[in-house]
Write a structure and sequence with these properties.
heterodimer; A: 139 residues; mainly alpha; 3-stranded parallel beta sheet; B: 595 residues; alpha+beta; Beta-Lactamase; Helix Hairpins; 5-stranded antiparallel beta sheet; 5-stranded mixed beta sheet; 14 strands; rod-shaped
Chain lengths: 139, 595
């Protein structure tokens, strides 16, 4: 997951560890760090990327665009994880090729539930019937 | 209209004068013929008189000769024969005169030839008588007597002939005199008629011309006044006009044209060249070019330029020109100059204001972003941390600590609600206002579905009547009804089943709210009423104000924005919303949407 906000990274990490998930989890502080990691040839590509939109230097949209332009990342599912609830951001993420949009919750229980649900989504099934309404994850 | 009358009048006068001239020419020609006739009759009379005179002379000569011969015969005194003309040549002047007269005006039963024959005979007899009397001096002479008898007959014949002729001439003269008299009378009548008619027509025309002149004077005065009014109007409106004759190459400027620049009308020669120095140097080329272009292609012009007044003041002028033909059929370019300085300055001010407003709007937008995103961000984290404490640490806290955490959570939630409502309020104010036909039944249906959980929680009963279709911004109406129902649910009474009703009501008689007259023809009236705690009527206006809350009770916690949003939305739809309340009985919201 990539987020410039230390608190959010901490909430996210704590949620993952409290969920006792077996998955490998890596955290990045900004878009540049994330892209460097992904583009490294020896990197094992993750299944899901949680991407914040408002980040310094390389924004979430920049990363989204770069990833979707690279064939190697075709199987990578991207979940936008942002405070913004503006329709413009949601629409642009959808058009940019993100798979789901999670609005950062204000309750830790809700966060855990969101992560659990999103990780367990059958992405192939979700993507086939995707539209603007199912795109926005409802907590 | 008066002009048309005058044009017609001048035509009438022309026709009248033409007729008068024709009439005078005709009557003059008639008069001329009459005069000629008169002359002819005078001539005839004098001819006849002369003829009579000559014939009388001839008769006298014959008589004198005869008496001379007879006296000689009796007396044998040859002195009686002296001064007698026995030669016919003595009558020659008379005969020639008669001949000339008969050529000039031949008469019936008379010819000089037949008279000459008679005279020849008579003179021969004279000579024979004298001859016989000289040869035979005897008193008794039968031959002489025989000749004398013959002479008597001859003289009688001549006398008869001449008398007949004379009678004829006299009767002619008489006839001529009657004719003459008649002709004189008719020519007097004709000339009198001629003068009278001519005078009459001339007087008539003069009268007409006079009245036309009076009308012209009135028209002229009107025109002067109009001109005066026009000049004043130009001054007041800041308009001036000019024209340029393409044939004579002459310019003419209106009074205000001179005034606008501050020129002296007497000394300034109106030409483009002379005006150019008063046009702002930066605009001069543009004006000259546009003007030349327009003259070349006969196209209308419309341009704005700056003009220096004589006192150095700059005025903004809008000049519009077009072409027309004047009364001589000459092409004239006519232009009107408006002084748009004030207008121009106002426009610039307005543009400044607009820019300022745009800036303010942009600031508001960024403020909106701050509220919706940047302020919510730390709040969200506060809530997140509270939920972390709530989950893991609550057990280790004292009762006081637990209470504090709860209160922090409540305040944080309340702040979040405030922020959300503020954002939606500012969206309503700014809003993308796209109007479309919206069925209120559908919108209310959606709202009820959205609020189903809240309605169930309160166990409220909702009655929805048939609602109209109006021209609206659907998402705003959605918000409006959400807020109104939420409001009613929030302020329900604990002890009774909450009832909320939605209906359209007919405006049977015009209703007055706030001094505004509402009629069925112009408005839809929609009423939302509940049986909640209500409010005192004096607060009816207050409840729509931003952040105004009537209830301090924590049970009825609200942000004080909801109804303000409602009012804003209704106003966005050019409608009106009013509230009626009875404490402890319920509240009623009345909305008028324009049809």
């Amino acid at each position: 997951m990539a987020d410039d906000d230390a608190d959010d990274r901490q909430f996210f990490s704590e949620a993952i560890s409290e969920l006792k998930m077996e998955n490998k989890f890596t955290v990045f502080k900004d878009g540049g760090e994330l892209m460097d990691y992904l583009q490294h040839p020896e990197t094992d590509l993750p299944h899901i990327l949680f991407l914040d939109l408002n980040m310094p230097c390389k924004t979430g949209f920049d990363c989204l665009k770069e990833i979707r332009q690279t064939a190697r990342f075709n199987d990578l599912s991207i979940a936008i994880y942002s405070t913004s609830s503006s329709e413009e951001d949601i629409e642009n993420s959808f058009i940019g090729g993100a798979n789901i949009y999670i609005k950062k919750p204000n309750d830790f229980v809700k966060l855990k539930k969101a992560i659990k649900d999103v990780v367990n989504i059958n992405w192939q099934f979700h993507s086939s019937g995707m539209n603007m309404e199912t795109f926005l994850f409802s907590i | 209209m008066k002009n048309a009358y005058l044009y017609k009048s001048s035509l009438v006068i022309k026709i009248a004068l033409g007729t008068a001239i024709l009439l005078i020419v005709y009557i003059t020609s008639v008069f001329f013929t009459q005069m000629q006739n008169l002359g002819a009759s005078v001539e005839s009379m004098s001819t006849s008189n002369e003829r009579v005179l000559e014939l009388e002379k001839i008769l006298t000569v014959i008589s004198i000769n005869e008496s001379g011969v007879r006296t000689f015969i009796i007396t044998r005194d040859s002195s009686y024969l002296q001064k007698r003309f026995f030669d016919q040549k003595h009558l020659k002047p008379q005969m020639e005169r008669l001949k000339a007269l008969s050529i000039k005006s031949p008469t019936e039963n008379f010819t000089t030839d037949s008279l000459k024959l008679l005279l020849d005979k008579r003179f021969e007899l004279f000579n024979r008588t004298l001859e016989e009397a000289s040869q035979n001096t005897k008193l008794e002479n039968p031959d002489l007597n025989f000749i004398l008898a013959q002479t008597d007959t001859a003289t009688d014949k001549i006398r008869d002939y001449i008398h007949k002729s004379l009678n004829k001439e006299l009767s002619n003269i008489n006839l001529y005199r009657i004719n003459h008299k008649y002709e004189i009378e008719t020519s007097i009548i004709t000339s009198f008629l001629l003068v009278t008619i001519a005078l009459f027509i001339i007087l008539l025309s003069l009268g007409r011309i006079n009245s036309d002149i009076v009308n012209l004077k009135i028209l002229n005065d009107d025109l002067k006044f109009l001109n005066y009014t026009f000049n004043n109007a130009e001054k007041i409106a800041g308009i001036s006009h000019w024209n340029y004759n393409l044939r004579t190459h002459e310019y003419s400027f209106s009074d205000n044209f001179y005034n606008l620049i501050g020129l002296d009308q007497e000394t300034f020669k109106p030409t483009l060249e002379n005006v150019l120095p008063y046009i702002h140097p930066d605009d001069r080329d543009q004006v000259v070019e546009a003007y030349a272009d327009s003259l070349r292609n006969k196209t209308p012009t419309s341009l704005i330029f700056r003009l220096y007044r004589k006192n150095g003041e700059i005025r903004y002028i809008k000049s519009i020109g077009s072409f027309a033909e004047n009364s001589h059929g000459e092409m004239v370019k006519i232009g009107v100059n408006y002084d748009i300085t004030e207008h121009y300055k106002n426009t610039i001010d307005l543009e400044d204001n607009n820019k300022h407003l745009t800036d303010i709007n942009a600031e508001l937008e960024s403020f909106n972003n701050i509220v919706s995103h940047d302020l919510q961000e730390p709040l969200r984290k506060i809530q997140m941390f509270i939920s972390r404490i709530d989950e893991n640490e609550i057990a280790v806290l004292s009762e006081n600590g637990k209470d504090y955490i709860n209160r922090i959570a409540l305040s944080a939630n309340r702040m979040q609600n405030l922020l959300i409502d503020l954002v939606s309020y500012s969206r309503t104010v700014k809003g993308d206002k796209v109007f479309e036909k919206a069925d209120l039944n559908n919108i209310v249906g959606e709202v009820l579905a959205d609020l189903a959980i809240n309605i169930q929680e309160k166990n409220a009963k909702l009655k929805v009547g048939n609602l109209p279709v109006i021209n609206a911004i659907p998402f705003q109406l959605h918000q409006l009804f959400v807020n109104l129902i939420t409001n009613s649910l929030k302020f329900s009474r604990q002890d009774v089943v909450s009832e909320i009703s939605f209906s359209q009501q007919k405006i049977s008689t015009p209703e007055v709210y706030d001094g505004i007259n509402f009629t069925e023809r112009k408005f839809h009236k929609i009423v939302i009423s509940d049986n909640g705690i209500g409010f005192r009527q004096e607060f009816a206006d207050k409840i729509f104000q931003l952040f105004k809350r009537l209830e301090k009770d924590i049970d009825y916690a609200g942000t004080g924005i909801g109804l303000a949003i409602c009012k804003k939305i209704v106003e966005n739809h050019k409608g009106y919303i009013f509230a009626e309340g009875r404490p402890g009985k319920g509240a009623k919201f009345i909305i008028f949407f324009p049809k």
